[in-house]
User: Which sequence fits this backbone?
């Protein structure tokens, strides 16, 4: 697969010296569903706006199909954007909103009728042609926004938190639908979200960002199972993160206890972050355990119970199908391969 | 709701006493002779002032057009500025309105006069003197100067509601800056254009101070004509009322046409 968009050392610095992007380099492959994931202010939308042409990087290059496109205005780029709050044209009806890009390019009326028709079908809005966009539900507005962008047959579709304003159920539906559209039309989607679940369910590749830097690039499975640092581990799903050190290969010491693990190659006694997923904490009788804690609270979450356990130095989050009563003393244990050892990130 | 309706009562009474009743009185005056008999002579006599009507409408139209052309870019620029800067800029736009209207117009007399400041300065570099005051141009200038804020404000208030992302969407979909202007910003600011035109055209067509101070004898406008019938030598309130009534009908007709361009929910009259 070819790279359709390449970013090289993008830096964005505001006048007051604040650096929004510190150095972003990334290749996006053709027909790939790439998601920029990160907390607000991490630079994900900024990166998307650079690809769209709405923002010029302070330094660094943007390539589209191998050609450098720095300075090229948005209307000359073969990408289209679905904006955060849809940004539909309030003075036009559904049909004219979708036809907008084609009319600007002076497409023939016959072609417009055909392509807008296809789009209405694709996003399930047949019969809404004459409806004012102000009288559509959030989900319908979203569909118009997607159709309006796709009708231009862009090579890359940029989506800036497009589902943020929808309720949970609708959001799930639209996630599936967007994925289907992307696969059916064989397009490259660049998707921005702060919702880790959304990122994991939809993407081919997830780009986790924080503080203007890329933390990790990988498939959803990689990102979830093999987070490269404590930030990624914490951001992708809940995690217990405690300080530890590595006295020798495959042994990690934290909270004054030694545990077997599967990681090696650290300096002797190197301090590390120890990451353990809540669902990987095994609850065992306190008297048999190396680590104990007192259950502080129990919350029923549907599939499992979430327990907060006070273990002196750390409040453990434990997901279990069995609830232990609040106030009781429990023991905790971990399988060696469930203990993830991460190098300390330099910034923290 | 009921309690709130009571609160609107004072204005309703005010409206009846000072708006509805006077309009009826104007109509009564227009259709009666000084003896109180019914006549349509007053109305038909208005016809002999047709040239004044044409001249007034013409000058008001030019002033309105100039206001629109001057205001549109400024209003757009204002609406795209950072929020805290918008306030300061708006204040500067409004500043002349804090000065008394007569004083402002009087100031233009001294600027434009044959021995005025402009001719004096031009004289220093060997130009002029030009006849600036007592011309139609001076009247239009006075109108534009006095009524410009009334065009800027409605335009600005509509434009600042246009979401930045809508403009970005237009660019994204292939619009260069000119197309963004005509395909998105102009249609979305149409209500502001219509109300700005109304707010400038109506006072401009009925002004008499500006034309009297800056226009000299050759620029008699409808306002001057009406004033003469009530306060001047030509004293004839019945004819004055008839002229006012005809003017009202003309304005009403123009506004009706204008409203055809405004979205249904924002009709102005």
Assistant:
């Amino acid at each position: 697969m070819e790279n359709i968009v390449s970013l090289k050392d993008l830096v964005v610095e505001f006048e007051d010296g604040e650096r929004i992007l510190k150095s972003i380099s990334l290749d996006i492959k053709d027909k790939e569903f790439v998601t920029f994931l990160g907390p607000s202010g991490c630079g994900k939308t900024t990166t998307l706006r650079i690809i769209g042409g709405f923002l010029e990087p302070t330094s660094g290059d943007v390539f589209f199909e191998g050609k450098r496109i720095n300075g090229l205005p948005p209307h000359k780029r073969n990408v289209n954007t679905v904006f955060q709050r849809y940004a539909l044209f309030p003075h036009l009806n559904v049909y004219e909103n979708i036809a907008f890009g084609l009319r600007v390019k002076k497409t023939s009326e016959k072609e417009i009728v055909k392509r807008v028709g296809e789009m209405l079908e694709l996003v399930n809005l047949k019969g809404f042609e004459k409806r004012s966009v102000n009288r559509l539900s959030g989900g319908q507005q979203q569909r118009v926004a997607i159709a309006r962008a796709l009708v231009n047959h862009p090579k890359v579709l940029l989506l800036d938190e497009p589902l943020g304003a929808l309720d949970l159920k609708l959001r799930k539906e639209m996630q599936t639908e967007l994925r289907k559209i992307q696969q059916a039309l064989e397009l490259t989607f660049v998707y921005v979200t702060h919702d880790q679940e959304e990122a994991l369910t939809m993407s081919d590749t997830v780009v986790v960002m924080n503080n203007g830097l890329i933390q990790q690039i990988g498939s959803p499975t990689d990102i979830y199972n093999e987070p490269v640092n404590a930030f990624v581990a914490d951001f992708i799903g809940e995690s217990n993160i405690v300080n530890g050190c590595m006295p020798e290969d495959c042994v990690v010491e934290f909270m004054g206890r030694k545990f077997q693990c599967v990681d090696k190659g650290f300096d002797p006694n190197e301090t590390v972050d120890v990451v353990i997923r809540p669902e990987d904490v095994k609850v065992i009788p306190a008297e048999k355990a190396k680590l104990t804690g007192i259950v502080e609270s129990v919350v029923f979450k549907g599939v499992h119970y979430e327990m907060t356990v006070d273990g002196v130095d750390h409040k453990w989050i434990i997901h279990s199908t069995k609830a232990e009563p609040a106030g009781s003393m429990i023991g905790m244990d971990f399988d060696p391969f469930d203990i993830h050892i991460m190098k300390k990130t330099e910034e923290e | 709701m009921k309690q709130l309706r009571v609160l609107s009562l004072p204005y309703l009474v005010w409206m009846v006493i000072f708006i509805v009743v006077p309009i009826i009185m104007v109509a009564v005056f227009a259709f009666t002779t000084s003896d109180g008999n019914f006549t349509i002579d007053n109305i038909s006599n208005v016809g002999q002032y047709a040239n004044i009507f044409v001249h007034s409408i013409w000058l008001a139209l030019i002033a309105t057009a100039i206001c629109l052309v001057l205001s549109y870019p400024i209003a757009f620029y204002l609406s795209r500025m950072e929020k805290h800067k918008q306030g300061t800029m708006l204040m500067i736009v409004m500043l002349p309105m804090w000065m008394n209207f007569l004083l402002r117009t009087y100031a233009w007399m001294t600027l434009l006069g044959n021995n005025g400041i402009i001719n004096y300065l031009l004289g220093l570099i060997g130009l002029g003197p030009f006849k600036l005051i007592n011309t139609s141009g001076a009247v239009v200038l006075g109108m534009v100067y006095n009524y410009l804020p009334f065009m800027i404000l409605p335009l600005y208030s509509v434009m600042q509601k246009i979401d930045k992302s809508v403009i970005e969407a237009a660019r994204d979909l292939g619009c260069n800056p000119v197309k963004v202007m005509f395909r998105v910003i102009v249609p979305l600011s149409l209500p502001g254009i219509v109300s700005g035109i109304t707010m400038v055209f109506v006072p401009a067509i009925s002004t008499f101070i500006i034309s009297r101070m800056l226009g000299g004898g050759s620029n008699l406008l409808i306002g001057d004509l009406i004033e003469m019938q009530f306060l001047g030598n030509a004293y004839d309130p019945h004819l004055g009322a008839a002229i006012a009534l005809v003017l009202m009908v003309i304005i009403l007709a123009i506004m009706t046409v204008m409203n055809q361009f405004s979205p249904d929910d924002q009709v102005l009259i």
